[in-house]
Design brief:
Diaminopimelate Epimerase, Chain A, domain 1, globular, 7 helices, alpha+beta, 2 domains, 18-stranded mixed sheet
């Protein structure tokens, strides 16, 4: 950070996480801080607000020591407890472009959801994998009729084969099973109606899924809606799909081996999110989400 009391300059990148050859990924802003004192919470929120419509969230990172980093996240509306796609974007970029880290197998990050492990698999899979926070399953249930009205879908679009559930793996996530791929692709809710529904029910994001996919190599199709963060749809999601991974484990729908999820509302130009599991130091099975990223802009952000 440079400048006078009237101006601050930050190292800034715009990076698209989970992007593939045929998809655009999910855009994240990324501020690399020289020190914790470089910026305050009001300034973090202001930058995220100024970047509304350009990126979905902005991540702020500070290096604690050689292999440990602290991360905070903001959307245009508010602080985000944990942002998966921004974490993928930032850690992929930092590891790939830092000589002392490129051969480091694991790195630690400190977030509002605790200290998490980052697996460096750039050389083998061109990806990093982030250990998701421990899951919290809510016992309350929201009725299908209310969900269908908020999502602007028919009750018959919601599958009876799987349960509706609320899981927090970083964000409070409502998980809704949908019968078919065509039904998922047709979903087009109204932003303010869905936002009011989420606020009323204490929901951060909504993830819909089906086990019918466009690509037979993929296991599930998902879409994620995030109206409380100032935008309707999140095109590629780490926290939401991690909650979905824990949901699958709890319901014996996944054995924990590598899983491939195609995500967004475009039939053949979807983003790819990978899931896998590993045991943590306490012997608990944890979900990890993974992917790569593409840097679109590398420069500085001037705050006046």
């Amino acid at each position: 950070m440079k400048g006078t009391n009237l101006m601050k300059e930050f190292k800034f990148k715009k990076i698209d996480a989970f992007a593939t050859i045929k998809s655009d990924g999910n855009p994240a802003g990324y501020i690399n801080l020289d020190s914790r004192e470089s910026i305050n919470e009001n300034e973090m929120q202001r930058i995220a607000r100024e970047l509304k419509g350009f990126v979905n969230e902005v991540g702020y990172i500070y290096r604690e020591n050689e292999t440990t980093f602290s991360l905070k996240y903001y959307s245009s509306e508010r602080e985000v407890e944990f942002c998966g796609h921004a974490t993928i974007a930032i850690m992929y970029d930092i590891i790939k472009n830092t000589g002392s880290l490129i051969n480091q197998k694991e790195i630690s990050i400190i977030t509002n959801k605790g200290q998490l492990v980052v697996e460096n698999q750039i050389s083998s899979k061109d990806a990093v994998f982030i250990m998701a926070p421990n899951p919290d399953f809510r016992t309350s249930v929201i009725q299908k009729e209310e969900i269908a009205a908020a999502m602007n879908i028919g009750i018959s679009d919601i599958s009876d084969k799987f349960e509706i559930s609320i899981v927090n793996a970083g964000l409070e996530t409502l998980i809704i099973p949908i019968n078919t791929l065509s039904s998922i692709l047709r979903i087009n809710p109204e932003l303010h109606t869905l936002k009011n529904f989420c606020i009323k029910n204490g929901i951060d994001i909504i993830e819909v899924f089906c086990n019918e996919t466009y690509d037979t190599k993929c296991n599930f199709r998902t879409r994620v809606f995030a109206p409380t963060f100032g935008y309707l749809e999140d095109p590629a999601t780490g926290s939401g799909n991690s909650a979905f991974g824990y949901y699958l484990l709890k319901n014996s729908l996944w054995n924990g081996e590598s899983l491939i999820i195609e995500q967004n509302g475009t039939k053949d130009r979807y983003n790819i999110v990978q899931l896998k599991t590993r045991l943590d130091l306490n012997g608990s099975k944890r979900v990890l989400f993974g992917g790569g990223a593409i840097t679109r802009i590398d420069g500085k952000y001037i705050l006046t």
